[in-house]
Amino acid sequence: MFDSLKAKLKSIFKKGSTLDEESVYKKEEPKQEPVVSPTTEKETEVPEQQTVEPPKEVKAEPARKEEPLPVKKEPEPEEKPAKPVKGKGKRSSQMLSTSLLGKKIKDDPLDDILDELEVILLESDVAYDVVQEIILGVRNNLSGKKYSREYSLEEVVELAVKESVGDVLQVNEFDFDAWIEQQKRPTIIMFVGINGTGKTTAIAKIANRLKGEGKSVVLAACDTFRAGAIEQLTVHADRLDIKIVKSQQEADPASVAYDAIEHARSKMRDVVLIDTAGRMQTNNNLIAEMKKIAKVAKPDLKIFVGDALAGNDAIEQAKVFDEAIGVDAIILTKIDTDAKGGAALSIAKTIGKPIAFVCDGQEYEDISKFDADWMLERLFDQAEA
Ligand SMILES: Nc1nc2c(ncn2[C@@H]2O[C@H](COP(=O)(O)OP(=O)(O)OP(=O)(O)O)[C@@H](O)[C@H]2O)c(=O)[nH]1
């Protein structure tokens, strides 16, 4: 998963270690007052700096003035924050130097690294606007800042990139489980997307998940365009022992949705999952059909299912469905075979809709809730393994 992007990012972090740095030294011996660096964000070290006063034994030996003890040239106490815990919650600002000593990354080599990062992200199918936002974030995190000597530049660059990517991912998150608990019964969820993206499989995975939580589920086989689609959903319904409402091929899909919802209402079922036809998103009939189903079924949630491998195309498809019926959330499939990660990184930001789940295989259990930490762990922490 995301292997190519991970490997390329790793090469960028390594370049961090060869970055030109300039050491920053104090201009003159500080007096006893602590000097606060402009980049200091926490004053937690102040007490330590105040105790820089001579240790006890010096006080005890005032007479030895004639032979001064060698004064340490570097009395400047470096701040001692905990070593970075790679991953969760770490901010690059915690690596900033709070003392007069530190190191700064020079701007020219930083520009080279950022240029390379831009190419890597674009090659990985990250949407252009999202790439620019990530680059700007990294620049803001690194440029002109003074870092504690405690960290290698490799660590500093990695954390700056990770933080910037995390900011882009954190735009909006969607807790499906919490959401569904607050809904009326039956809750109606409609799935849209072009064919072959894994829509039917994703519906089966969600159905299995809901069933596992004790909810009763009805499937609505509204892809009446393709006979195979009805059969495929029926196979899942049988395997999962879930009710399916279906009709003949070429029946009106909106009427199938209506029947499924009526069935769920009369039998007091919890959730109706509506499968819809695929085809290309540019097909006007398809879009008209989606609008009609949405009008009749009045879904509580409309989920766009996109194939992660499609990269920027998945984003374009999502836009079309969003304009037509208003998408509320996204499921990205086949993430297990996606080396680039571009769609996962940029679809939510570009469409302004959250990724609810990602699917990473063909088994019912191969579905995970998506959030920024999930993505960051796979892109960065596993890259160190
Ligand atoms: N590797 C992998 N394969 C998947 C995943 N999700 C679905 N597939 C496979 O992708 C193929 C298409 O999946 P479907 O669920 O039939 O796709 P669909 O969007 O319903 O397609 P239509 O019925 O043609 O509209 C199937 O072979 C699935 O087993 C996934 O997360 N990972």
From TrEMBL:
Residues 18-94 are annotated as: Disordered. This is Signal recognition particle receptor FtsY. SUPFAM superfamilies: Domain of the SRP/SRP receptor G-proteins, P-loop containing nucleoside triphosphate hydrolases. It is a peripheral membrane protein. Residues 186-381 form the SRP54-type proteins GTP-binding domain. Its main location: membrane. SMART domains: AAA, SRP54, SRP54_N. PANTHER family: SIGNAL RECOGNITION PARTICLE RECEPTOR SUBUNIT ALPHA. Keywords: Cell membrane, Cytoplasm, GTP-binding, Hydrolase, Membrane, Nucleotide-binding, Receptor. Belongs to the GTP-binding SRP family. FtsY subfamily. It catalyses: GTP + H2O = GDP + phosphate + H(+). Part of the signal recognition particle protein translocation system, which is composed of SRP and FtsY. GO terms for cellular component: cytoplasm; plasma membrane. One of its GO terms (molecular function) is signal recognition particle binding. GO terms for biological process: SRP-dependent cotranslational protein targeting to membrane. It is found in: Cell membrane; Cytoplasm. Residues 185-332 form the AAA+ ATPase domain. InterPro entries: AAA+_ATPase, P-loop_NTPase, Signal_recog_particl_SRP54_hlx, SR_rcpt_FtsY, SRP/SRP_N, SRP54_GTPase_dom, SRP54_N_sf. GTP binds at residues 193-200, 275-279, 333-336. Residues 85-169 form the Signal recognition particle SRP54 helical bundle domain. Involved in targeting and insertion of nascent membrane proteins into the cytoplasmic membrane. Acts as a receptor for the complex formed by the signal recognition particle (SRP) and the ribosome-nascent chain (RNC). It comes from Methanomethylophilus alvi (strain Mx1201). Its EC number is 3.6.5.4.
